[in-house]
Amino acid sequence: MNADDVTRRTFLARAGTMTALLVSSPWFAHAFPAREGERVVPFADQPSAPPREGFNLLRWEELDSWITPTPEFFRVSHYDVPTIAEAGWRLEVTGLVERPGSYTLADLRARPRAEVVFTVECGGNHGFPWLTGAIGNARWTGTPLAPLLQAAGIRQNGIEVVFFGQDEGMETLREQKLKQNFARSMSVEDAMSPANLVCYEMNGAPLSSPHGFPARLIAPGWYGVANVKWLTRIEVRDTRFMGRFMARDYVTIREEERGGQTVAVETSVGRARLKSAPARVTVKDGSHRVTGAAWGAPIARVEVAIDGGAWRPATLDPTYNAPYAWRIWTLDWPGATPGEHTITSRAIDLSGNVQPAPTDPLIARKKTYWESNGWVTRTVRLT
Ligand SMILES: Nc1nc2c(c(=O)[nH]1)N[C@H]1C(S)=C(S)[C@@H](COP(=O)(O)O)O[C@H]1N2
Ligand SMILES: [Mo]
To answer: Looking at the CA of 138, which ligand is closest?
Structure first.
């Protein structure tokens, strides 16, 4: 081996390390266009402090990348955060199936790989003044769920697929204290969606404990709560599942009219809803720009109203466009005057649905904080 070879090998090794670094920090390559030297004008209406630490909520003004870096990704855990050792862990596929399955992490990794860029939003986001940053966009990798269910063979009478997490807590049910695991369910049809993944990687690295190591469900197009972390068991049943996070918590109550009567309708939080929000206002050489995000459905357009005025069309970022990921948008705001201004955004999806106004019965007649997908208005004070 000569010196040139050594240099070349060292170079290749270094290049390899560089590539590995870039690949393991995918958000590095996902900064969306910003004007060089622009300055962020902080919103005047900052969210209040969360009642407890640990949510790691998105700070909208810091949004500068399509992919949310994992350390900045919000976290919600309703019970404990279990630390699971890979060695003893298995994912069971059980219940009304012909061939129950039991998979190690290596088994799952050996199966076909698929990935999806999916914006996860907590169903409670924007439901409280302190909860406005329970959202993030990541690249999720795993193995498709449907073939796992097919391999198990769902029996004729199976109608419901329940996803159990390892985390557990004591629940008071009809005056009895009983232990339960976090669990969510879907109809067999919804569970069989080709988009669903049994996910083991987030942003190119194994899932971290707070985000569900060793494996979690990733259900693109559904609110955060459906994406069960620390998966241990997938169980097919012949009755609707009525666990806390399906039927008691994460339940929206809305008043509706039925034959001249007002009725309070309760529905389980499930599929994501069309939504958008202004993320940041920037200024460069006296010219202002609003940047934001839109998600929850394939986005056709976003419109922005300044001080409650006419809707102005925003420009959708042409670079990053994936069916389950948020779409970044910008609106140039020339001639912005000093003083206080409000900025409101609304998204329109490909089917023509419009993100609801606060006065829309969907929002105005909602009695609970879940599914708060109405227009988001932010305030800035310009000098
Ligand atoms: N096992 C389990 N899965 C869970 C939860 C939980 O408490 N336990 N929280 C859910 C809720 S309410 C949300 S919003 C998302 C948040 O995912 P993240 O913590 O990875 O951001 O996880 C969901 N999956
Ligand atoms: Mo959530």
So the answer is: 1
What is the whole-number distance in angstroms between the Cα of residue 174 and the centre of ligand 1? 25
Asked whether residue 298 is domain-assigned, the answer is: yes
Residue nearest to atom 24 of ligand 1 (CA): 228
The per-residue pLDDT of the chain, averaged, comes to 93
Structural domain for 318, as ranges: 25-50+270-382
**In the listed set 226, 243, 260, which residue is the last one of a domain according to the structure?**
243
- Residue 124 shares a structural domain with residue 223: yes
Listed in sequence order, the residues at least 6 apart from 284 whose beta carbon sits closer than 8 Å to its beta carbon are 35, 37, 38, 39
Going by DSSP bridges, is the β-strand pair 216-218/197-202 parallel, antiparallel, or unpaired?
antiparallel
Please give the tally of structural domains in the chain. 2
Q: Residue 71: its pLDDT value, please?
A: 96
φ, ψ dihedrals at 225, nearest 5°: -60, -25
The pLDDT tens digits for 167-209 are 999 999 999 999 999 999 999 999 999 999 999 999 999 999 9
Q: Which ligand is nearest to the CA of 169?
A: 1
CA of 41 to the centre of ligand 2 (A): 29
Domain final position from 202, 227, 243: 243
Atom of ligand 1 nearest to the CA of 74: 21
Eight-state DSSP code of residue 272:
-
pLDDT in tens, 15-56: 444 444 444 444 455 888 789 999 999 999 999 999 888 899
